[in-house]
Amino acid sequence: MSSATPFQFPEMGIKEFMVSFIFASIFFSILFIPSILTRPISQIPPTNLPHPPQPNHFSVSFAYLISASKGDVNRLKRTLQALYHPANHYLLHLDSNASPSEHLLLAKFVANDPTFSRIGNVWIVKKSNLVTYRGPTMLANTLHAIAMLLRTCKWDWFINLSASDYPLVTQDDLMHAFSALPRHLNFVQHSSHLGWKMNKRAKPIMIDPALYSLNKSEIIWASSERTVPTAFKLYTGSAWVVLSRSFAEYCIMGWDNLPRTLLLYYTNFISSPEGYFQTVICNSHHFRNTTVNHDLHYITWDTPPKQHPRSLGLKDYRRLILSSAPFARKFKRDDPVLDRIDRELLKRRKGQFSYGGWCNGSCSHSSRGDSSGALRPGAGSRRLKALLTKMLSQRNFKRRQCR
């Protein structure tokens, strides 16, 4: 009786099967991988932030980054209260150099506020960054915040502020003035005339130890200098910006390599937040015509070369109003001018939110809030609308773009 022989694939059958399998795998990868890489970032579930708040019926929404340094928790709390509105989103960053007690104080303030808990639109950067004054870590922190906010919620414009900034209009004023604007506009104060910054910032090479160290220290200067770039044109301006969602997405997920190339270049550039967004947007053919040459801030500077903003006080109050700007900086902690701004411009009582239709004008921390989209703009909205109309006029808008 002959023993049965096991079934074997013919030799050519195995080769044909393997070739077909390899080609099928390659074809599947070509189809599937781009679909992953091109998914909108807003569809990717967030990892470090809670679920986004429920959609509201307001016509426009802002995403704020409010940054604070060691010793600034109380200023941060006051600025947040003055800026708060349920239609917006707020990401708070407290420098990792701040003490654990300060981080705990801020966390308790947000967690224990009934309005923040109910609306769910105030977050704290859990793993805070070490930020060096004039170093690229400040820029990295801003880009980190933009990425987190893009993944977490829907908004129209991103605004970066510090704890020493303060609003000059209510959020109802701001939302009402912006509601009629094209959503692609970017408010980035910029200039290609570097002047003294050419030799003091563009040519020197520096290293920020906060990029690799747990302890804050002074920046390190290289002995040699570099030439002015020829692959792109340098621009400079204000570190305080109002960015459209589309441009923010471009900076994080840019479909060409310009944002990443410039990020690498500005890693060794002193005061990189005053040049990165300006240089990216003005060297991008797609976005350069979306720029409004203004940072929407009222700032007074020291004597030339204007490297440090002067602290504002009561003597500046009239000029603050005449500027028609929605924000100003910088203010000393609990300066009397802030009390006057609260009382006369924001209609805000101590420890409460600024006046708004969402809380029926009585904006305490126990307010239930109204998601119907009702706004109660006032004189601040009229001043801001006049400023925006002037900036977007034919005489000013195109003539001041990326020259």
TrEMBL record:
Localization in the cell: Membrane
Regions that span the bilayer: 17-37
Keyword Cell membrane attached: no
A Pfam family of this chain: Branch
Keywords attached to this entry: Glycoprotein, Glycosyltransferase, Membrane, Transferase, Transmembrane, Transmembrane helix
InterPro entries for this protein: GLCAT14A/B/C, Glyco_trans_14
Keyword Transmembrane: yes
Major subcellular location class: membrane
GO CC annotation: membrane
Any GO molecular function: glucuronosyltransferase activity
Membrane topology: Single-pass type II membrane protein
Protein name from the UniProt record: Beta-glucuronosyltransferase GlcAT14A
Species per Swiss-Prot/TrEMBL record: Cinnamomum micranthum f. kanehirae
